[in-house]
Each structure stands twice: as structure tokens, then as C-alpha cells.
Amino acid sequence: MQTPQGYEIVDGRVVPVDWIEIIFNPSFPYRLVHMALAAFLATALFVAASGAWHMLKGSAKPHAQKMFSMAMWMLLITAPLQIIAGDFHGLNTLEHQPAKIAAMEGHWENEPGEEGVPLILFGWPDMEAEETKYALKIPHLGSLILTHTWDGQFEGLKSFAPEDRPYAPVVFWSFRIMVALGMLMLLLGVCGLWLRWKKRLYESPLFLKFALAMGPAGLIAILAGWFTTEVGRQPWVVYGVMRTVDAASDHSVAALTTTLVAFVVVYFAVFGIGVKYMLSLIKEGPEEHHDPADGEDSTHRPARPLSAVSDEVKL
After folding, report:
1. Closest Cα partner for 171 from 215, 212, 230, 246?
2. Does 44 score more than 50 pLDDT?
3. What are phi and psi of 133, to 5 degrees?
4. 228, 199, 244: which is closest to 34 by C-alpha?
5. Which residues contact 287 (CB under 8 A, 6 or more apart)?
């Protein structure tokens, strides 16, 4: 859908001719690495938040410290790697989907004689006025990030016909939410390293509250990145091949409404049950395992909570 290849157009239909090319398309490795690292980050942040919550409460302290320490190491390793992977992914997107990059940057055109493209930190891309209003800019930084040169140029939104432009306000802000959260993840990891060096990793209430607040940041960043990717692909359902408007099925409003409502109900139910179960595990927290050799109770919650089976059940 993003960088299609390995197909042919036969009688107006898209026909796959090489599944290896289809799967291993030009953006595949960048998207795979970026998403895998995002999953590791989201998991580490949830584990860290759980450990921080129990330490702030003073419960399950040794085990909470261990899970918190492991999460901080994971965060410290994966956050910088994600920034590097994101840079490579951005360069790949600039090559294959330049309109998406222009929308992400709120960049409309290269001014005559302009030396370098600034990075717009904040602003509001106005699709009708064809400009980014209230822009706060850092000179040359856009060129440095996207071309790795001080005065490099890249296409602005005005280089594309209005009907070929993605809706810039959503892409512009979802991208900034993702990046801002990524910077906070890096800050959390670096602060954790410094406190570890100072032997105070578990003793700073402010840092523990920071880690607790960052618990959902990984999932929010994933959603923001998803919005950036998919809204930025518009108006194409398959980039450069089929427009979204041409992919719409000919169904009645009633049929589409019924289907949409059913999807919403099912997804909210599944998501709600999953979140409730996950939060209940976090609330219960880790439990100490007692070795039977010590003459203590060996009962403990299994590593996989749903795998607990009564001893009376014989298979």
C-alpha cells in the first residue's frame, strides 16, 4: 500500500506477478524495524510503569525494582536505536512518498535563493491558504535532517496537484506527537542511566512518577505513527496505483453504518477486556517465589497467568 511493486495492471485490475517483490518492497525493512522497536519500547514503558507504581506504594519492592531495572535497560537501548531507524525510514519515505514528507514538515515550497529548509517545530498547515501559519522555525534543520546537508532542498506541497496532497494538519501534528514522545522516552532512559550511576535509580519519587506517567506513551506513539503513515498516504489507498475514492465499495449507507457499528462494538469489547486484564496483572504485581527446599510455601502465580491448571485436572 505504501511502496507497491511486483504487480501488473491487466484489464484495469492489479494482478500480483512476484510475491517476493511484493513482500520485500522498498519500504519493508524500514517499516519492520521501526514497528518492532516500537513494540519493544511500548512493552518496556508498561513494565517500567508497573514497577514504578509498586515502588511508590512500597509493595513487592525487590521484585518491582528488578522489573523496573530491566525495563530501564531496554528503554536505554531501544530508544536511540528507534531514533536512528526513524531517520533511515524518513529518508526512504522522502524517496518514495515525497508528498507525505512535505505534509509532515508543513513545507509548501522552496523560496528562490533560499539556503536550506527550516524545521518547523509548531504551526498550522492551512490547506486553502497553502501555507503553514504561526510557524516556529529553526533555520536549516529541516535540510540537515532530511538531506543530511546544510542547505539541501526537497519538494514542498505546492509541487503536487491539490488533489494529490495528503491532509497536512493531521500528518503534521501526529508526526510531532510521535517524535515528542520518542524524545521523552530517550530522556527517561538517560535519566535512568544517570540515577543508576548515582545508586539512586529506585529512590527518586519524581523519577518514578515520570516513569509511571510514561506508561501509555509507547502505545500513543504507535497510534500517532500509524496516523502519520496512513493519513500521509492519502489520497491513495495503494500509493500511486489506486486512489481511495476509486477503492470504495458500492454499498448502501445503512449497510456501511451497520458494519461500522458492529466493528466499533466488537473492538471496544475486546480492547476493554484486554486492558482490564492487563491492569489487573499490574495491580496484583510480582510475587516472590519460595523454594520448597527452604520449607516454605511454594505456591506462586505462574509466569503465564492463564496457564494455571488445577492439579486435579489430568490430561
Report:
1. 230
2. yes
3. -80, 155
4. 228
5. 60, 63, 300, 301
Q: Report the relative pairing of strands 13-16 and 7-10 from DSSP bridges.
A: antiparallel
Cell numbers at residue 255, please?
449497510
What residues contact residue 23 under an 8 Å CB cut-off, 6+ apart?
none
Residue pair 6/19 in contact by the 8 Å Cβ criterion: yes
Q: Residues with Cβ < 8 Å from 167, sequence gap 6 or more?
A: 103, 127, 231, 234
Q: Tens of pLDDT along 8-37?
A: 988 888 899 999 999 999 999 999 999 999
Give yes or no for a contact between 80 and 186, defined as CB atoms under 8 angstroms apart.
Answer: yes
- Helix extents (H) in 149-252: 168-197, 205-213, 217-233, 244-247
Cell of 1: 500500500
- Per the DSSP assignment, residues forming a β-bridge with 243 are 236
Nine cell digits for residue 17: 506477478
Could you tell me the CA-to-CA distances from 142 to 84, 85, 139, 289, 290 in Å, in that order? 16, 17, 8, 53, 57
Distance from C-alpha of 238 to C-alpha of 292, rounded to nearest angstrom: 60
CA 87, chain centre distance (Å): 14
Q: What is the pLDDT of residues 168-213, one digit of tens each?
A: 999 999 999 999 999 999 999 999 999 999 999 998 999 999 999 9
221 residue type, one letter: A
Closest CA to 34 of 77, 88, 73, 71: 88
A 10 A CB-CB count for 267 gives 10
**CA 12, CA 296: separation in Å to the nearest integer?**
73
Query: From CA 218, how far away is CA 76, in angstroms rounded?
Result: 14
Task: Please give the C-alpha separations between residue 57 and each of 61, 213, 285, in angstroms, as whole numbers.
Answer: 9, 15, 11
From 47, 82, 43, 81, select the one nearest 66 (Cα to Cα): 47
